[in-house]
Amino acid sequence: MARTRTTIAATQLTKPESSTKHQARAQSAAASVKHESFMNGSTSVYIEQMYAAWQEDPNSVHKSWDAYFRNVEQGAAPGQAFQAPPTGGLTLTGITQPSAGAASTALSTAGASVQSISDHLKIQLLIRSYQMRGHNVADLDPLGINSADLDDTVPPELELSFYGLNENDLERDFVLPPSTYIGGSQTSMKLKDIIDRLKDIYCLRTGVEYMHLTNYEQQDWIRRRFEAPRVTELSRDQKKVLFKRLIRSTKFEEFLAKKWPSEKRFGLEGCEVLIPAIKQVIDSSSSLGVDSFVIGMPHRGRLNVLANVCRQPLATILSQFATLEPADEGSGDVKYHLGVCIERLNRQSQKNIKIAVVANPSHLEAVDPVVLGKVRAEAFYSGDHKCDRAMAIMLHGDAAFAGQGVVLETFNLDDLPSYTTSGCIHIVVNNQIGFTTDPRSSRSSPYCTDVGRVVGCPIFHVNADDPEAVMHVCNVASDWRKTFKKDVIIDLVCYRKYGHNELDEPMFTQPLMYQKIKKHKPVLELYQQKILKESVADEQYVKDELTKYGQILEDAYENAQKVTFVRNRDWLDSPWDDFFKKRDPLKLPSTGIESEVSNLIIDKFSSYPEGFNLHKGLERTLKGRQQMLKDNSVDWAVGEALAFGSLLIEGIHVRLSGQDVERGTFSHRHHVLHDQKVDQRVYNPLNDLREGQAEYTVCNSSLSEYAVLGFELGYSMVDPNSLVIWEAQFGDFSNTAQCIIDQFVSSGQSKWIRQSGLVMLLPHGYEGMGPEHSSARPERFLQMCNEDDQIDLDKVAFGPTFEAQQLHDTNWIVANCTNPANIYHLLRRQVLMPFRKPAIVMSPKSLLRHPMARSPMEDFAAGTHFQRVISETGSAAQNPANVQRIVFCTGKVYYDLVNARKHIGKENNVVLIRVEQIAPFPYDLIQAECRKYPQAELYWAQEEHKNMGAWAFIQPRFNSLLAREGRGIKYAGRHPSASPATGNKYTHLQEQKELFAQTFNATKKDFEGFKP
Questions:
Q1: How many CB atoms lie within 10 A of CB 674?
Q2: What H or E segment, with its residue span, contains residue 70?
Q3: Nearest CA among 60, 63, 57, 112 for reference residue 84
Q4: How far apart are CA 602 and CA 629, in angstroms?
Q5: How many CB atoms lie within 10 A of CB 966?
Q6: Which of 100, 613, 638, 837 has CB atoms 3.0–4.6 Å from 677's, for a disulfide?
Q7: Residue 221 in this model has a pLDDT that exceeds 90
């Protein structure tokens, strides 16, 4: 009879007798067995389950157990239920109650039965050990010299001797446990057959690592797909498709090597199976409903992926090896960093699909969160909330996958509600070497993929020289992602035929490995021999296919010689085809709104639903917002809300992400209200403004900067008609996201023609809080601006389009706003501009509640706009001839200076001017301000140290602008320092007084008793 699953849980059975009686008999059986020394508690449970199965069908258990249970039914006491089988074997014709005279005989033979049962349990442990540790001895290295897990020893639990068994036991029959499918319909197998089957499944060229999963259903699902007999065979047609894909992968690299032998291309030699693997994942996933694939990968094999997975025209790719005149303002990037987006028919599923490869710099794993953000955005905009139609495929190198911290940060986003993409398929190109570093020196874990165990990824290690095994794991991985919506890892254990690049000499550091590689046949040749041997194809077929693709490459080479310019659209991973049409790039519209809209937003923002149990402190906050509207003086939180709310009403999706952004680190925002009595009952007022509005996503992130900023960058790439914001908990936290900032945000348009309107809010301000929570390091962002620090006034016209032209030409915007209206206009300008630029905003901390940092409602009204520079409006501005000093500044220090100026009575002869947008530098407005006060000396005052802040950026620009007038600008502020700020409150106050003294030509004594 076929083995049933009834032994898994007795409660699933239809019980033939009452529950109480059944339980009593089962417990009696268990007690009898437990009386023997080799039993334990978990075994007792298993015996109860087996007993229940036996009651259903005595033939469903081994005959020795059948005999045992019959004795229990006859009332045998614990320790006496075992009865030795007849000498002819295990077959018993009947069991009778032993007589008193036969009791001693039963006891003397019980030991044999106990040993038999013990042996059966040991076989179950043996099977489990292969399931858990078989991958450790699998034949994974194509070269046959390394162990993928860095350990050459055989786990003792895989040896028969570990269980006290030997070769004499190989012909014995053993019952198969319910946790394996190796027997198919068989319920028992000979030990030698069990071992052979386990080795075939777990120890050949696929190592299945899945027993770390804590979900039994998932474990069982994987067992079914690997243990069931004949699950890995491909049809003849599938083998031919695989062979043709190997031809394309292999011959593409050989062609480039022949035509451009001295060029770096980071070829795929040694892992040519990667191309068929990616294509198989796409084929399988496409048939399961996925129609959008976003690929993130390092540079190894990128050109091959673009050519043979995305089907980017070969002539377009080959033209990258030629010398072309630049066709755009971008500096460009090396060809193996470029991205692409292609829409085409998938021939295997006969469905239209879109494949995007995200451009990626040399920080190999930096692209991981960017890819996930892009997938999440695509799913959001298409209403694909479970990511059934959009999927990420992430490619990794072994050394980077194990060594780069962003990998774990990205994995940690997997199941977070506002970040999940419902599973990603990871493919590791496991070269077994990192640049020149042996894996034993590059990781501490057994496998390079062990990071995936943290989040419960099944991991399929596979020898890259076995293409059919690779295809099987690709199919399983695709099905896993569809079924469980969780990540999965395919570890392609391969080798790197050349050095780190084609011009590198690997024999310097890996002589033995590369001696072996030189003698090793490529996978195409190995698979060609296989299909010829199996008569899947003949020599003529092989010759025809090789000739056909060779001619395709030659034709593409000829066409590449005719390419004379680069078409930007060919290398964009997220093209915005319709965005730039009918937009005047030099026209900036007003960012103000009508009063009825602002009144609606503030009304909603200061209210909550009836029956909602709001915190008493927040009740006061909401009433305060209502009062601000009446007083015509709103704070920062209201300014933000007006920006977000007005965009939402206009149909613009807004996403705000970061640590604690729902409330705000400084407890000013409160965009998500929490019911104080009902767990997880929340209310988001900005999502309750008007019917048909866009969705506002405000989400607290994990405690990550690198991955989360990368995620939001990827999200911002998909749809330009959105406002995507990442807020750091403190500005200096962006330090750990610097790779994303440097490699993607600041230079993305220059390298990849990749525009993004991402906003980074970085809390900044010196308030005596120490060196780690003061500075967002504005100097770093200013240093990376692409704007020249010299201006030629003979060539530049300060006209109405000057601001728009500057914004169009800059790589990003750096701002430090001082009032709610200006941050409101800045945020709205991000969306209303006819192009997209990242905005780096030094956002406030103390100004969030500062009584002077308020704005009247008329500053938000229709016709108003962002103020790059805010002029002096006090008494000094009324008498320009009396002004002795113009002090330019930016950010929160302005309010400190206002109070200090009032303290020493210099309101009439010192002008304070706020530079709200530092980059692009507002030359036109600065010139106008300086000409208002022709007799005044110019100072730049900042709270940052002299080697920090904006001073190094603004000084040459001021001096270049004013050189003809014979004027220059001087510095007032802290001295240079290695640390951003002091950690001593008293020292901070003394430094502030020194700043005021320099700014107003006074002494520190003039500020005794003054509290800034």
A1: 18
A2: helix 63-73
A3: 112
A4: 7
A5: 6
A6: 613
A7: yes
HEC assignment per residue over 905-937: CCCCCEEEEEECEEECCCHHHHHHHHHHCCCCE
CA distances from 507 to 160, 499, 504, 517, 943 (A): 41, 8, 9, 11, 55
pLDDT of residue 112: 57
Rg of the Cα trace of the chain? 36
User: Are 243 and 528 a contacting pair, CB within 8 Å?
Assistant: yes
Taking only the tens place, the pLDDT of each residue in 370-428 is 999 999 999 999 999 999 999 999 999 999 999 999 999 999 999 999 999 999 999 99
Nearest to 75 by CA among 91, 95, 55, 90: 95
The two three-digit tokens of residue 831, written as one number: 């969306």
Sketch out the chain's domains with CATH numbers.
10-98 (no CATH), 135-205 (no CATH), 251-321+334-498+507-571 (3.40.50.970), 595-764+816-860 (3.40.50.12470), 869-1007 (3.40.50.11610)
**Chain mean position to CA 87:** 65
Distance CA 698, CA 656 (A): 5
d(CA 248, CA 279): 12
**What DSSP line would sit under 688-730, residue for residue?**
SSSTTPPPEEEEEPPS-SHHHHHHHHHHHTT-SSEEEEEE-SS
List the one residue out of 909, 918, 970, 980 whose CA is nearest residue 941: 970
CB 828 within 8 A of CB 647: yes
**Helices 274-287 and 467-484, axial angle in degrees (round to 10):** 40
Copy the structure tokens of residue 666: 């400084």
pTM: 0.88
CA neighbor of 380 nearest in space, from 422, 333, 408, 344: 422
Q: What is the pLDDT averaged over residues 943-948?
A: 97
Measure the CA–CA gap between 323 and 325, rounded to whole angstroms: 7
Are 602 and 685 in contact by the 8 Å Cβ rule? The answer is no
Smallest CA-to-CA distance from 272 within 426, 516, 492, 433 is with 492
Q: Which of 271, 352, 273, 270 is nearest to 311 (CA)?
A: 352
Q: Kindly indicate the confidence band of residue 472, based on its pLDDT and cuts at 50, 70 and 90.
A: very high
Which stretch of DSSP H or E encloses residue 492? Answer: strand 488-493
Residues 6 or more apart in contact with residue 444 via CB below 8 angstroms: none
167: its two tokens:
């070769």
Strands 759-763, 722-727: pairing kind: parallel
Rounded distance between C-alpha atoms, residue 634 and residue 628, angstroms? 5
- CA–CA gap between residue 142 and residue 465 (Å, rounded): 6
What φ, ψ does residue 886 adopt, rounded to 5°?
Answer: -105, 125
Helix (H, G, I), strand (E, B) or coil at 945: strand
> Residues 6 or more apart from 143 whose CB is under 8 A from it?
495, 513, 516, 517, 520
Output the DSSP codes for 103-139: HHHHHHHHHHHHHHHHHHHHHHHHHHHHHHHGGGGS-
Q: Please give the distance of CA 339 from its chain centroid, rounded to a whole number.
A: 17
